[in-house]
Amino acid sequence: FIFVGLSIFVIAIFFIGKQQNLFSPVFKVTTSFQNVSGLLVGNNIRFAGINVGIVDNITIINDSTVQVNLLIRRNVQQFIKSDSQAGIGSEGIIGERVLIITQGSTNAPIVQDGQHILSKEPLEPDMIMASLYTSASHAEVITNQLSQIMIDVNSGEGTIGRMIQDTSIAHNIAQTIANFKKSSQDFDETIEVTQKNLFEFMEKLQQTAAKTEIASHELGEIMTKINRGEGTLGALINDTTLSANMNQTIINLMQGTKGLDDNMQALRQNFFFRRYIRRIERDELRKIDEEINLIKQKLEEDTELLEQHLEDDAELLEVYLEDDAVLSEPHIEDDAERSEPHPEDDSEVNR
How many domains does the chain have? Predict the structure, then answer.
């Protein structure tokens, strides 16, 4: 009986000593708190979720500082850094307190035997309960407000309630959506037509620019030929002899016309030719009057047609400019620059 009791005592001493790290090499670390929140001597120390030591001693330094001595197994010293921090937690919700050491930075040196490490103050259970009570109170208020809102909605009060209970509002909303879809479709069609008209306008504008460029080139060739003395106009400008002959011919014609006028005036005074000349004049005047009337009628028709074309083109151009001014402006400026006559050509024409 004595041997059995002694064996049990030795085994108990062994397990207790193993739990308290009595048979393992340890090193000491200190930390301090303002409030240890029920931490006791002998409570476990955890690092990375593993029990690595025990709380060796708790000492009150002053009214705001409590120092805690820690005994940690030597084989985990290489993993604890000098910038690690100590904190106080608990095993479960109502379990005993444990001291938790956080993992430090990778580049920090290893904690040394007897070194003091920083700490984080624990959260008091009373503070946690007060915070939970405040959150629960706010949740109750929000729940009551949501309940009242649902009651108002079910009774048809408020905008949402009327929308749910009143079918006419839902019908109006559906009609509004349908009208919006139709307007969007019409707008898409308008955009498509505008783009088509714009493309046609730009094509015509390019054709006009091409024709203007061709006309400018041909005008340049004509001016070159005139300067070289080719053609009738070139000969008139560059050949001084032909120009002098032309001036003399014009003078002779003017003199002959004056003599013819004198002869016609003399014939009008003659009794034998007076009636004949008057009849010829009346016939000529009648023919001239008819030709003037025809020309006037033709001019009126052409004027009306031209005005109609100008109005149509102006309306079309105004639509293009209003809808796509930004798109057409660079092309118009480029075409205007290409269609401007060169200063050299203008000087040649003036000369």
Answer: 3
